[in-house]
Amino acid sequence: MSDETATATTTGGAAADGGRTAERRSRGRLASVAWHLAALALLAVILYPLVWVVGAAFKPSGDIVGSTQLLPTRPVLDNLQRAMEGIAGISALVFLRNSLVLAGASVVGTVVSSALAAYAFARLRFRGRGLMFVLMITTLLLPFHVLIIPQYIIFQQAGLVDTYAPLLLGKFLATEAFFVFLMVQFMRQLPRELDQAARIDGCGYWGIFWHVVVPLSRPAFTTAAIFTFIWTWNDLLAPLIYLNTPEKYPVTLALRLFIDQTATSDYGAMIAMSVIALLPVVLFFLAFQRLLVQGMATSGLKG
Amino acid sequence: MVSTALSHDSPPSAGRGAAERTRSAAPRRRRGRPDREGLAGYAFLSPWILGFLLLTMGPMLASLYLSFTDYNLFTAPEWVGLDNYRALFRDDQWLQSVRVTLVYVTVSVPLKLAGALAVAMLLVRPRRGQGFYRSAFYAPSLLGASVSVALVWRALFSDDAVVDRALSSVGIDTGGWVGNPDYALGLLILLAVWQFGAPMVIFLAGLKQVPRELYEAADVDGAGRLRKFGSITLPMISPVLFFNLLLETVNAFQVFTSSFVVSNGTGGPAGSTLFYTLYLYQQGFTQFRMGYASAMAWMLVLGAGLVAVLLFRLSRAWVYYSGDDGR
Questions:
Q1: Which residues belong to any copy of the ABC transmembrane type-1 domain (chain A) (predicted)?
Q2: Which of B105, B85, B84 is CA-nearest to residue B310?
């Protein structure tokens, strides 16, 4: 856009007559239409797989694999029905509930523990804070895989394998450094004068945290909560390692089980189950898209 | 009392904080009061400290120890010195997993960043529907990490499926990407590149910071689009580019779900999608070779760390921080 304006002013000068401005405006509109067409075409390619899977969920099982069609010619519901029946005699609702419990508890744990740690890092001064902050930042880049084996051994020795404890304990102990860092960045920007005002009103550190910092940090908490929910919902590795009983499986593992048992025979149900598993994430995304994109931009969170 | 409270809590910078402390806090401490701020700090940090010791630091030391042992979870670890590390370099599967992972990192990361930057530049100027476009391009980033999408990918690229049919209709016969060792890694790379939304959003934030005057000055000088991109845009966004590069590289080293789902946990066909983390998982949790897998984990830390250090070193040559001279 600026190219056009720039060339127009240099060639036409300040005394551009009315005809030129009109011409320029129509050229601008044409460029704008071309831009939108190009962007939409690109989007169509990129979102094709997502639309395809939704369409495929309603196609008869035999039509799915080879069909490039997005929408089913004669939509059927029996895929969804079979998917809801679940696997190994366990209803899909059980898996969905498990995922919901895990993701919900993870959100609570992560937000609470990260907020506490972030407040200390961002607003309090004490001996050793600098060193601990550096350690926290280092864990941001540490490959998670160096920890899984000893962590597994710890939980195995403690008799906690096949429970949700290994999947949740870390969330309540602020081990996700991304969110601590995100909240530290956010809390640092809050005006110190508010702390002082609260102090005059008789607040201690807890009072300042609870009455000043927590209410003002809500945007950072929301971002962390949404990301935690989606990441936990999508997580495969941790449940894969720690859970053995199908009744305790979250949706991701159930999907795996589904593939193993019905690999070639029931594509339709598998696709339908995928859509069901994706649904909460999509809903979260649609509800909070702006917040997610903003949180991403300001903090550099991974996707 | 009010004034001491104020001055005690006001320092915004560390330097001033130290000065304030000697002036106002020290006499209070002489009265035998413990450092309340310090106590509060440790209290608020206690979950993190516990988590760090119990779930990060402790396990790291344990895994370092285990990497020098033979351990199968059921009998006591047996010290074997450097045997695990020596064995790695004679393990064809391990070498294969290193190769696959390196190819994946070096191909997927640049492609993903290039795509992210291109789309970010397309979206940077305010247009109608800006929010919609941004969110829509970002969507794959969030959804792509799920098992569901990996499954969809497998369905789209398997033999005689959508992609195969589309390609053979224009005369390219691949025989399905999932079962073909020459293409299987390609489809995982495509899946990674498809999730370009996260770096794109960061690029967008960076591009917004570039001062318009620079482009206007370049216009006056008659610079073309390419020249403006090379001489203004790239240097100005180089810190963001570096940040994205570092983050995506570290993440790419750790990829797991996509290859696990697409190859059904095998890393096949013919080891073509045997990612490092997948092989680590197989060794640790299906073979129960915990010592060997720990050695693998430490080689990953070393390797990824080395690459990160290398990126940092090289960045001095091309990353430009405006108004941050000598730092």
A1: 96-288
A2: B105
If you average pLDDT over residues B290-316, what whole number do you get?
Answer: 93
Answer yes or no: is B247 within a domain. yes
Nearest to A293 among B135, B243, B298 (CB): B135
Q: Touching check for B229 and chain A: CB below 8 Å?
A: no
Q: Which amino acid is at A34?
A: A
Domain assignment present for residue A25? The answer is no
Instruction: Tell whether A268 is covered by a domain.
Output: no
Q: Quick check: is B71 in a domain?
A: no
B301 CB within 8 Å of a chain A CB: yes
Its domain, for residue B116, covers 98-261
CB contact under 8 A, A50 and B143: yes
Instruction: Nearest by CB to B297, from A145, A274, A285: name it.
Output: A145
Q: Provide the domain limits for residue A198.
A: 88-258
* Contact between chains at B304 and A1 (C-beta distance less than 8 A): no
* Predicted confidence (pLDDT) per residue in A126-183, tens digit: 999 999 999 998 888 788 888 999 999 999 999 999 999 999 999 999 999 989 998 9
Q: What is the pLDDT of residues B9-49, one digit of tens each?
A: 433 444 444 444 444 444 444 444 558 888 999 999 999 99
Look at residue B70 and give its three-state secondary structure.
strand
Option in A35, A141, A274 nearest B148 (CB):
A274
Predicted local confidence at residue A83, as pLDDT: 81
Assign residue B177 the CATH number of its domain.
Answer: 1.10.3720.10
Q: Which residues of B touch A116 (CB under 8 A)?
A: 44-45, 47-48
Stretch among A150-164, A249-263, B135-149, B199-213 having the lowest mean pLDDT: A249-263
Rounded to whole angstroms, the Cα distance separating B80 from B176 reads 45
How far is the C-alpha of A302 from the C-alpha of A296, rounded, in Å? 7
**How far is B35 from A239, CA to CA, in rounded Å?**
43
Question: Would B111 be classed as within a structural domain?
Answer: yes
- Out of B48, B131, B133, closest to residue A290 by CB: B131
DSSP secondary-structure letter at B222? T
* pLDDT tens by residue, B256-276: 999 998 888 888 788 999 999
Q: B52, A175: Cβ pair inside 8 Å?
A: yes
pLDDT confidence of residue B115: 96
Q: Report the gap between the CA of A159 and the closest CA in chain B (Å).
A: 13
The secondary structure of residue B90, as a DSSP letter, is H
Structure tokens at A169: 């304990």
CA distance A208 to A213: 6
CB pairs under 8 A between A and B: 300
